[in-house]
């Protein structure tokens, strides 16, 4: 059943970022049952009209929703809602992650969660999952070189690591957290690191490569250490800035 074209998809509060505001609104409708699993979302043109945003913003938002596992897109057909993963009552509202302190608290959780996830992923990942991680890293690198959206492939890489644990609760928790886990969706991370955006993101890319390399060679301890280093670097930069 299609969602009526005149059904508004508007956020309750002013978004900090147009694409993120759109992600939050559609996520709320899917988790709240207003858009049921299997239903087709409004067309890109209709969402553009409702929100007054560009096609680029709409596509970025849909890409993030797809990375979060909330929608799937069939090219030439449309985008459809998926069944939200279990534990739908757990939710971090991105609008509540607004300060450096908020990001630091979330990073503490991520260090504990994702370091162990990386170790499990190294031991349990499949060749197909490893291939998908490689694709996410290549997408990140391409976006970096072309000044594009690096948030989506960044989040997708971390989500893929969680999925490779073969423990659905890791992936469920990451999906619920969504792209809000990426600090630069909340604050200017490069500014806090006292370097330009390109240099900051290049360093993030290298840290991702270290994690991938350890998972690829199935070195669980190295994978845990690489993930802990990656997230701890972000935490320490913010602590110094604070």
TrEMBL record:
Chain ranges of the HTH gntR-type domain: 16-84
InterPro entries in UniProt: GntR_C, TF_FadR/GntR_C, Tscrpt_reg_HTH_GntR, WH-like_DNA-bd_sf, WH_DNA-bd_sf
GO molecular function annotation: DNA binding; DNA-binding transcription factor activity
Keyword Transcription regulation belongs to the record: yes
Organism superkingdom: Bacteria
Record keywords: DNA-binding, Transcription, Transcription regulation
UniProt cross-references to CDD domains, sorted A to Z: WHTH_GntR
SUPFAM superfamilies the UniProt entry points to: GntR ligand-binding domain-like (SSF48008), Winged helix' DNA-binding domain (SSF46785)
Listed name of the protein: FadR/GntR family transcriptional regulator
């Amino acid at each position: 059943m299609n969602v009526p074209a005149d059904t508004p998809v508007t956020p309750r509060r002013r978004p900090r970022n147009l694409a993120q505001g759109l992600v939050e609104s559609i996520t709320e409708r899917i988790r709240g049952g207003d858009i049921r699993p299997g239903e087709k979302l409004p067309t890109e043109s209709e969402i553009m009209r409702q929100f007054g945003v560009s096609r680029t913003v709409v596509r970025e938002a849909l890409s993030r929703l797809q990375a979060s596992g909330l929608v799937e897109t069939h090219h030439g057909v449309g985008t459809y809602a998926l069944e939200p993963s279990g534990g739908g009552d757990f939710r971090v509202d991105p609008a509540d992650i607004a300060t450096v302190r908020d990001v630091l608290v979330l990073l503490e959780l991520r260090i504990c969660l994702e370091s162990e996830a990386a170790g499990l992923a190294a031991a349990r990942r499949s060749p197909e999952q490893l291939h998908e991680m490689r694709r996410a890293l290549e997408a990140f690198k391409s976006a970096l070189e072309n000044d594009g959206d690096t948030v989506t492939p960044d989040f997708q890489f971390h989500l893929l690591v969680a999925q490779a644990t073969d423990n659905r609760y890791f992936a469920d928790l990451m999906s619920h957290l969504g792209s809000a886990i990426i600090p630069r969706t909340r604050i200017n991370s490069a500014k806090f690191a006292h370097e330009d955006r390109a240099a900051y993101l290049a360093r993030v890319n290298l840290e991702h490569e270290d994690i991938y390399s350890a998972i690829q060679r199935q070195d669980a301890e190295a994978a845990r250490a690489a993930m802990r280093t990656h997230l701890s670097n972000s935490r320490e930069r913010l602590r110094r800035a604070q």
